[in-house]
Structure formats: C-alpha cells, structure tokens
C-alpha cells in the first residue's frame, strides 16, 4: 500500500529529539509564550528573510489576524473588496468574510493553478483594496506581476503561503545593475500567513501557524491582537483574541525547521521523476519550471473520468486525494456566490487528482506509482 502521506513515519524521524525536548519542556514549567515560541519566531523570520514573525494558533487565524490588523490600522475598511483565487482552499475565503470584507473570486491559470494576472486586471474595480495571492499546491504565484499591479492600483498584497514553506523566487528582473535577488515565500508581498497543520510541508503535531512581514507597525498590531489585544499583562489597547502559537507545537517546529529544505528537495526530485516518467496520454501533468519556486505540497494531475482513475489506483494499492472536490463559490456556506460562473475553476475541481508525494517516499514507491499510472 502506497499511502498518500505517511505522517506517522514522517514524524518518526524526529522522535528521539522530540522526546528529549519534551523532557526539557516538562522541567521548564513554562507553558504559554515561552522560549520555544520565541526561538521559533526568530528562526522562522530569519528563514523567510523577513524582519518579523508572529506565531499563531493556525493558518486561518494567521490570515484573519492580518485583515483584523489592517482594519484596526484604518488601512482597510469593512466592506472593502479582496481579490482571491477562485480555486483556493476554503480557509482563505473564510478569513476575508470573517473580517467583514468581500471576496472577489478571480479565475486561475489552468497551467499553474495560480491566480491569473490577466483576470486580476479584468476584474479590477475601485472597491478592490487587496489581493490575496495563494501559492497553491506549493508553487509560487506570479508575485512580480502581482506586485506591479498592486503598485499601479495602490493595493495590499497578502500571501497565503500555507502550502509553500521554503519556496524560492529568483527574480528575473531585467535591471542589469541589480544583483538578482533571492526571495522566499513569506517575503513576497506586504505580509504573509503560514499554516503548520500536520500535513503541510512544515507540519506541527497539532495546529499552528505564523504571520511574516517587514512592516513593523503591522507586526506590532498583530502581536497585540493575537494575545488579548495586549502587549503588557492586564493592559488591553485593542479588542483582541487568543490566537497564540502553542509552546509544545513551537517545540516540534523548532526540531523540524532545519530539515525543511532537504524535505522540499526530496519532493522536487520525486516531482521531476513523475514529470519525466509518466507517459500516459490520459494524464495532464502540472507545469513546473524545474526551479525551487515549487515545493510540491501536493502533486496534482488532471484527468477526464476521474472516478475511474481513482478506483484503478486504489485497486493497485495507491492512495490519492482530491484538492479540492468543490470550489468555494459552489459551497453551501456561500449561497450568495453559488450562481457565479467560473469555468476554469469548475473544470479544475472536476478533473484534479493528487498523487502520493512526501519526503519519505522511496524510489521504489515512486517507480511503483509510475508503473501503475502508465498502465492506466
Ligand atoms: C491549510 C491551509 C489554510 C488553513 O490553515 P489551518 O492551519 O488549517 O487553519 C489556509 N490556506 C491554505 C491555502 C491552506 O492550504
């Protein structure tokens, strides 16, 4: 049986260190916003190349805190429109709606699954004040183009980097004098949100998330908001929340962060094998430029008659998942959007299948998947 993602064995690699650190934790007697959270915030900011990182309770809360902070600062107003790729995971949409803002669903490119830059321009109105770029499936959105549009229309750029920890953008700026600048997910817009849900490329053993930014005022506001609106015990300047990163989860993340780049490299190697060795014409392979701008959170192919394909793979002991079966605008929770026509998004949701990919898959596992796929 080739599992879609063998989380138990992914984490088993770190068990002795987890146990050693857990002993330390028990002896410390410090359970909330202790040393582990502080160490993680410093290391993750430095990993992403940003000045600030604030640990949060999960990815949805990280995204929501960003919008709440912009509202608090008067940079966004209730009812402002936020552009968002129509094929994203539902949590991206929830953060917009739960903050009293209005999502504008923008079609993605069928090739990259990421928000289409042309469609952003087409759907622009004076009500739009922000763009949420989601690096879907682990591949960076076209941030250079998105940032140019944002400059032109004076918009905020918020990254939903929940699937793209460690993805690297190498600027292809044609300015001859500037050294080409290497930037990572989390440092490609005004502010970014990460999730450390267990199945993400950097996963905790429970819920966790983070916000990264270079904006000092925004970072300070989020830091207060996520801790009862307070930065001094029992003094509350803002109507805040309890959206803190847990000390134990930070401890697990501190053990795992140094291994993230190697894990991502392994995912890229598997993806390269899939892309060169899968030869079945019935399977549409994803676009990948071969660089580090894609960390393959999931490897998504497209296919007609998906149900047939999925049951064929299941019969041959290969687990798959679908990211995602129903697009946000077709969800019951979003009744007022149900009538929208978004043909590319709908086509994606009807045809995508995610194949097994993980840092602990063996070469034999990968060969087995390829063999079965080519026999389909
Ligand atoms: C996982 C995910 C989230 C939500 O993160 P949680 O930690 O589960 O709240 C948001 N956006 C995207 C794109 C995600 O994949």
Order of helices and strands: HHHEHEHEHEHEEEEEHHHEHHEH
What name does the CATH topology of the largest domain carry? Aspartate Aminotransferase, domain 2
What is the residue-averaged pLDDT? Answer: 96
Helix content: 25-40%
What is the spatial order of strands in the main beta sheet? 1-9-8-5-4-2-3
Tally of individual domains: 2
**Shape field:** globular
User: What portion of the residues fall into strands of 2 or more residues?
Assistant: 5-15%
Low-confidence stretches: none
Bound molecules: pyridoxal-5'-phosphate
CATH homologous superfamily caption of the largest domain:
Type I PLP-dependent aspartate aminotransferase-like (Major domain)
Rg, rounded, reads 21 Å
Description:
The chain is an alpha/beta fold and 376 residues long. The chain has two domains: 7-258, Aspartate Aminotransferase, domain 2; 259-374, Aspartate Aminotransferase, domain 1 (Alpha-Beta Complex), CATH 3.90.1150. It has helices at 7-12, 15-28, 35-48, 59-72, 90-98, 117-122, 143-153, 216-225, 247-256, 260-277, 306-315, 343-351, 363-375; strands at 52-56, 81-85, 102-106, 128-134, 156-160, 168-170, 182-184, 191-195, 209-213, 299-302, 352-355. Helix 5 (90-98) links the parallel strand 2 (81-85) and strand 3 (102-106). Helix 4 (59-72) runs parallel beside helix 5 (90-98) and helix 4 crosses helix 8. It is globular and about 65 Å long. The mean pLDDT is 96. It binds pyridoxal-5'-phosphate. Pyridoxal-5'-phosphate is lined by residues 58-60, 88-89, 91-92, 134, 160, 162-163, 195, 197, 207, 209. InterPro entries: DegT/StrS_aminotransferase (IPR000653), PyrdxlP-dep_Trfase (IPR015424), PyrdxlP-dep_Trfase_major (IPR015421), PyrdxlP-dep_Trfase_small (IPR015422). GO terms for molecular function: pyridoxal phosphate binding; transaminase activity.
């Amino acid at each position: 049986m080739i599992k879609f993602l063998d989380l138990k064995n992914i984490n088993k690699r770190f068990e002795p260190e987890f146990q050693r650190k857990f002993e330390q934790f028990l002896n410390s007697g410090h359970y909330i916003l202790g040393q582990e959270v502080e160490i993680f915030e410093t290391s993750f900011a430095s990993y992403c190349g940003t000045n600030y990182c604030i640990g949060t309770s999960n990815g949805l809360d990280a995204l929501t805190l960003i919008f709440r902070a912009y509202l608090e600062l008067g940079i966004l107003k209730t009812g402002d429109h936020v552009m968002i790729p129509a094929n994203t995971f539902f949590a991206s949409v929830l953060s917009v709606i739960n903050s009293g803002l209005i999502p504008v669903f923008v079609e993605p490119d069928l090739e990259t699954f990421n928000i289409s830059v042309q469609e952003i321009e087409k759907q622009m109105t004076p009500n739009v004040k922000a763009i949420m770029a989601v690096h879907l499936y682990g591949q960076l959105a076209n941030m250079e183009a998105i940032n140019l549009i944002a400059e032109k229309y004076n918009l905020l750029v918020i990254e939903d980097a929940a699937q793209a920890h460690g993805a690297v953008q190498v600027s292809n700026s044609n300015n001859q004098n500037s050294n080409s600048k290497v930037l990572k997910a989390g440092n490609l817009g005004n502010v970014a949100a990460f999730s450390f849900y267990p199945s993400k490329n950097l996963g905790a053993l429970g819920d966790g998330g983070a916000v990264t930014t270079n904006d000092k005022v925004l970072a300070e506001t989020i830091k207060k908001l996520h801790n009862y609106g307070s930065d001094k015990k029992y003094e509350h300047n803002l109507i805040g929340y309890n959206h803190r990163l847990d000390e134990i989860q930070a401890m697990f993340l501190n053990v795992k962060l140094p291994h993230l780049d190697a894990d991502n490299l392994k995912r890229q190697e598997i993806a390269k094998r899939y892309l060169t060795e899968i030869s079945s014409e019935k399977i549409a392979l994803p676009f990948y430029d071969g660089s580090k701008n894609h960390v393959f959170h999931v490897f998504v192919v497209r296919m007609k008659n998906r149900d047939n394909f999925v049951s064929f793979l299941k019969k041959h002991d290969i687990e798959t998942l679908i990211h995602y079966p129903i697009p946000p605008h077709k969800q019951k929770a979003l009744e007022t959007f149900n009538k929208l026509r978004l043909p590319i998004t709908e086509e994606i949701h009807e045809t995508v299948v995610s194949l097994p990919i993980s840092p602990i898959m063996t070469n034999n596992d990968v060969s087995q998947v390829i063999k079965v796929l080519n026999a389909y």
